[in-house]
Design goal:
Layout (H helix, E strand, L loop, with lengths): L1 E5 L2 E4 L2 H27 L12 E2 L4 E2 H9 L4 H7 L5 H23 L1
Antiparallel strand pairs: 1-2, 3-4
Helix pairs in contact: 1-4, 2-4
Length: about 110
């Protein structure tokens, strides 16, 4: 027996189907929560860093952090050079950059 859960998604009502459905919801919820958290810490703010994607409280553009990684700096080296940043700041900056690229890709594929 199958039951429609949402537009176009049909998952069998078996233990495996329920498990798959639960995992999809959990993944989606986790992604949304992380995205909202990321946007609070890493965002565009008028008057800070020229309005580019940054960690406004630290006045640190995400593009600068990406260039540090591209230049070969490790997490540890960046944190030593910029002690106002945390490991979480670096992780969120990378996540925000990835989300931005995904949005751009979706717009192009549109």
């Amino acid at each position: 027996m199958k039951k429609a859960l949402d537009a176009g998604a049909i998952i069998p009502l078996s233990p495996e189907g329920v498990h798959e459905w639960y995992n999809r919801i959990a993944d989606s919820t986790r992604e949304c929560a992380m995205s909202l958290y990321t946007q609070r810490r890493v965002r565009r703010e008028t008057g800070v860093c020229g309005g580019v994607l940054s960690i406004p409280e630290e006045r640190m553009p995400v593009s600068f952090l990406l260039r540090c990684f591209a230049a070969g700096m490790s997490h540890r080296e960046i944190l030593r050079a910029y002690p106002q940043l945390s490991e979480e700041d670096l992780r969120l900056a990378l996540l925000a950059a990835a989300e931005r690229l995904e949005c751009d890709d979706e717009a192009v594929a549109g």
